[in-house]
Structure formats: structure tokens, C-alpha cells
Write the C-alpha cells for this entry.
Amino acid sequence: MSLLAKISTTADERSARLAGIGLMLLSIFMFSFGDALGKFMVATYSVGQLLWLRACAALIVLSPMIWRHRMEFVRLERPLLQLLRVTLSTLEVAAFFLATVYLPLADVITYYLACPIFVTALSAIVLRERVGWRRWTAVLIGFCGVLIALRPSSQTVSWPAIIALGGSLSFAVLMLITRSLRSTPDIVLASSQFAGTFALGALMSPFGWVTPSIGSLGLFAAAGCISVSALLCVNRSLKLAPASVVVPYQYSMIVWAVMFGFVVFGDVPSWATIVGASIIIGAGLYIFLRERGLGRGETVVSPPV
């Protein structure tokens, strides 16, 4: 029995919630550490190499579970939608690490924190879900936060920033699709995402290939293992405690992004990034709490793998 499985929901409710919060905070730290590690690696190696070698390590770690649930891969629901989901997942991960080549980690994370705002707007526009004026107001305020962080002008808007925003939008659409594929097992959703980055990385890595040292291979493997571990912690956290309790802790990602950015890369976040991130977080939390009050599915979801 795995360590996470031993953390059982049979414990009293308070202990289960505390364990869920702890696992969520741990997962966010690991996601943030993995992001910082990825940014460190793409300073020397191509994004394609990072995607491929990171996915190799993740799929090796997941292979026992993939084998155990192999029949679930045969009877997939709505295969075309599954394929679209994997495509969007692959593009957003590639966009994230490509943006980190040129932008501070905190800036890229700030754009990705806007995902719940994009999800709410797209739910109303694409899925025709009813969104009241309060949540539309929060969406508009959140977009103002994005604009403040982006600092749009002919001198400041850059392709890396647009790529990061594009990745955030892709992640938002990915979440909408995932919402409609609830009956698909977690192992299928997670492993298919890593399979997508494996395929794209295999196509991209020959261009600008740099032969990695043994130490670098270890770092690539660590990046993959960290991603899998963080994903497992998120899943267990959401089983131990209600999403309304643990999901808001995901916004601690910006704190880790600022810390890792400063300590590892010497990046000091600008006032625009800090103000924009604060507005985005405030709007996202309001949307989340409003969704909970209406008894709807939460729009704030697990961080990307």
C-alpha cells in the first residue's frame, strides 16, 4: 500500500481536512519546484528535450499504474474529445516552459493564475452556462489584473508574454473539456497528458539537441518524478477534503514562484506583476466562492502537470 493510500478518509473529518490542506500545499511546492527546475534546464537545453525527457521519467513512474488499469485505455469515452484534450495539454505545457525561457517565473505563473477567470468567461460564451453579473464583474476585474501584469504598450508587450497568455487560455479550455470527461479515470487523464508531451518532445528534441550529462539526466528525471508526485498529492488532497477547503491554497504558487525566481534566477518581480497577481487572485477567489455558494462545480482546478 502506498504512503498516500494510507492517508485514509476514514480518519475524523478535521484530521482529514488538515491532511488534505497539507497535501495540497506540498503539491503546490512540488509543482513550483518542478517549474523552477524546468526553467533552469531550458537555459541550457531545448524545450523539446525538457518535454521529452521529463515525460519519459513520468511515464516510467506511472507505468505500473498504467499496466494495472490498461483496460481503461481501451474503452475511452468520446475519443476525439480525449485527443483534443491531450493536444491542448501538450501545447499549454510547451507554452509554459517556452515562456519561462524569456520571462521571470513569477510573470508566467501570474498569467496562468488567470485560468479560473478564463474558465468562467468561456463557460458562459462556449457552454452557454448562466453567469450572473457578480461573476462577470469579477471576470472583468480579473482581466484588468491581467492587463496590469502585461503592461500593454508597443514597448512592453512581447511574444513570450503572449505565448504565456495563450498557454493559460489553452489550459482554461483544457479544464472545460476535463469537466465534461469526469468519468474518465485519473490515471488515463494524467498518463495521456504525459504521453502527449512525450510525442511533441520527441518531434522537437532533435532540433538543437544538446547531449545531456549524467547530472542533467538526473535533473530531467527529477522533473518528471516531481510532476507525478505533485499530481498524486493533488488527487489525494481532493479526496480527503472538499475542494472548497483545499483549492484556494493553490494560489500559494505565486509565493513560491517569487521565491524561486529571486533565489535561483535573481528575478525581482515588478510592481505591475505584484499588483496584477493580487487582483487576479482576488477575482479568482471570489469566482470560486461564488461557484461554491451556488452549488456548482468549482472552476478553480489542479495546476497543470
